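Forum > Structural Biology > Help requests

Title: Can anyone predict the 3D structure of Helix-turn-helix transcriptional regulator?

Hi all, first post here. I have the sequence for Helix-turn-helix transcriptional regulator but no way to get a structure on my laptop. I'd be grateful if someone could post the structure tokens.
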Amino acid sequence: MTTWLRRHVSFDHCVVFGYRGAARPPMLFETFSPPESHVFVALYQEGPYLLDPFHHAAVERKEGFWRMRELAPDRFYASEYFRSYYSQTRLAEEVGFFVPLPGKDSVVLSLMRLKASGPFGTADARLLRDMAPLVIELCRQRWRELPEAETALAPKNALPPDNEFDRTHIWESLSLTPREVHVVDMVLQGHSTESIARSLGVASGTVKVHRRNIHQKLGIKSQAELFARFIEIIESRR
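Reply #1:
Sure, ran it for you. Structure tokens for Helix-turn-helix transcriptional regulator below:
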């Protein structure tokens, strides 16, 4: 399929992940070299995928062609997730074909262009969007279902299937209220205070109070420390 896609649009990398709730996503196909795979696959599977807009869209069972910029929160490119992980990919742009499978599973075929190549042009994006129905059908024929967790992932690294390891559950032991957990989750994804306020239907000042309380309870002072705590908790649960 990648050969056929390259005949129509230029891209540097292609990767296919399978998503099942919050479980660690199996990599189904990649075009990376070993060093590149370490960043794009191994590091991603260790926990950052939980904050990936593509992961969120897949779990929400979006279908079709989407550009990262269409899915990312308003402060995504200034988020600690972007600075600490996504910037390591050195991508100019990532686009994806989102393919819901039977049940709760989804497959996402991502096409990537590095900064040296520049982002996808308007004509490229339009062409890829037009190609989406065929690409989606080909993906469904190739990946009719995802491999089971125990065979897709190394046992010591496997997270529980489905939504048993939901993002919100990682904060349960830290005495955060349900509302504070929601705020933490949105902050980590890259939502601004204003975006969080709109989502919750509250004033921006209320969100700021929640954020101050969260920092106090977690003993942190910055988003960098919040992201580090997020990864620390994930690693402690493996």
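The two ends are 35 Å apart (CA to CA). The beta strands are 13-20, 27-30, 64-67, 91-100, 105-114.
Shout if anything looks off.
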